[in-house]
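Reminder: ligand-aware prediction takes two inputs, not one.
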Amino acid sequence: RRPAGRPEGVPAREIRSVGVAGAGLMAGQLALLLARSLRVPVTMRDLDDERARRGLAAVHDEVERQRARGRISDAGAARLRELVRVTTDVADLAGADLVVEAVFEELAVKQRVFAELEGVVGADTVLATNTSALSVSAMAAPLIHPERVVGLHFFNPVAQMPLVEVVRAAQTDDVAYSTAFAVAQACRKTAVAVADAPGFVVNRLLVRLLGEVLGALEDGTTVAEADRALVPMGLPMGPFQLLQLVGPAVAEHVLRTLRHDLGERYPDSPGLARVVREGRSFVTGAGRPTAASPVDPAIGE
Ligand code: 3HC
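Here is what comes back for the chain with 3-hydroxybutanoyl-coenzyme A:
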């Protein structure tokens, strides 16, 4: 089944209000981008007050950073703070025309979130998933209206990365698909139509790359040297910086999904599993990692 681009002559759904399921790292970045690009209220929803509070604080910090750098005016910053809200009550997403989910990367969790959303939103609200690798069709399957589900896969850091993978599930209708392209376009992203296949396009390559460099680490190369060796190959950042940015646990989830669906081409990475288990960090000094944890000397830094 070939993915086709935006269907011609099919108007996108008008979006006056957006919901974001989750208030974590990707969710907050998405909420801010959507509020800024679509200029509509965006409500993030997470499970408890603490996660909700932290999610909103991260958004406010970024708004303040942009204001302090003169990228947005005082009024613009105030407007963004007004537009992005947070809640723990899914019913607060009832009026959303579009909900983007960015919750834990597990099919059952995402299916539960969509089922819960379907209980409160309108029948034609578009439900988009930011999944890294899971099947969008499988995510949509248990719903009453699976035709409104579409994949809208943004990359981290969301504001900077120009690409969005748009995924048409087996059930996705033209309106939901067209809406996904329109949203990506409004966010000034390059929308690429990709098949609903494990890892879509980018992550198929990315986890192989990260798995291989972890192999080099196992063989004794240091994090800093591996990053230094590979950046001149044309990568925008060293692979270990990238692993830090993506999060080793997310990378492991992607790898596990690809291994499950595509088999031996995606072998287990003992290095990645160990990094996840031990909560190691790859801060090499260059660039800006997401977590400010110190380098573990055992990694060979
Ligand atoms: N988090 C958030 N923003 C960051 C960041 C980070 N870790 N690192 C840099 N930035 C921002 C900076 O704040 C700056 O924004 P500003 O202009 O508003 O201040 C902007 O990026 C440019 O920063 P710099 O000039 O310092 O740095 P670079 O020119 O080196 O660009 C980069 C930074 C855009 C992050 C670049 O290194 C890059 O493209 N790296 C590759 C990132 C990548 O491949 N991401 C995909 C990950 S895979 C994924 O998300 C899919 C998932 O499913 C696993």
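The longest helix spans residues 49-68. The pocket of 3-hydroxybutanoyl-coenzyme A is lined by residues 132, 155-157, 160-161, 203, 206, 236-237, 242, 245-246, 250, 288, 290 (CB under 6 Å). We will return to this case in the review session.
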